[in-house]
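Whiteboard transcription, Tuesday session. T.W. wrote the structure tokens on the left side:
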């Protein structure tokens, strides 16, 4: 003997409920899809904190892509140990970023997304013409290809940067800079 769990009326109620749910989901879908896109666009790309801004205070500045692009932009073409052909990098020169945040310290911690940390002197980064690149060949750099920020040096134009010291300072997936005295 078989038991029929679904009567004609319960199937109809299920079908009606399913249609209502589908309509509600479809009505909400544009809002759901647009929200993450908006949040991603406004997400901070780089945080700079520590001895910045007014004297005697600890500060923090966070840049999203638009705010970072509003800073003076610089570009150069160079080869790197990580690229087979010359690449055009564009972004914000170290001297311009440090001026924009009012960096007061010389000691830096450069922190990548994977918690890789490099300690360096701000003066060495500036003297090496360091560039906080956000674009490679005109295209924003994704995390999967050293982005969103890659501290890179003009290795071809500056033979003094063709050294392990500068290669180790070329931090990709850079997310935070801590400035200390």
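and on the right, the sequence the group agreed on:
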């Amino acid at each position: 003997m078989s038991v029929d769990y679904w009567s004609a009326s319960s199937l109809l109620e299920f079908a009606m409920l399913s249609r209502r749910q589908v309509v509600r989901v479809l009505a909400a879908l544009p809002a759901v899809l647009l929200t993450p896109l908006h949040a991603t666009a406004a997400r901070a790309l780089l945080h700079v904190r520590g001895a910045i801004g007014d004297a005697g205070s600890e500060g923090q500045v966070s840049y999203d892509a638009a705010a970072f692009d509003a800073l003076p932009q610089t570009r150069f073409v160079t080869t790197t140990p990580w690229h087979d052909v010359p690449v055009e990098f564009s972004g914000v020169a170290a001297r311009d970023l440090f001026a924009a945040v009012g960096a007061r310290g010389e000691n830096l911690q450069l922190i990548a997304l994977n918690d890789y940390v490099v300690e360096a002197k701000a003066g060495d980064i500036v003297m090496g013409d360091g560039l906080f690149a956000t674009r490679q060949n005109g295209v924003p750099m994704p995390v999967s290809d050293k982005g969103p920020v890659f501290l890179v040096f003009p290795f071809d134009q500056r033979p003094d940067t063709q050294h392990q010291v500068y290669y180790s300072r070329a931090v990709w997936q850079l997310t935070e800079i801590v400035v200390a005295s």
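Someone added at the bottom: Residues 31-41 have pLDDT under 50 and may be disordered.
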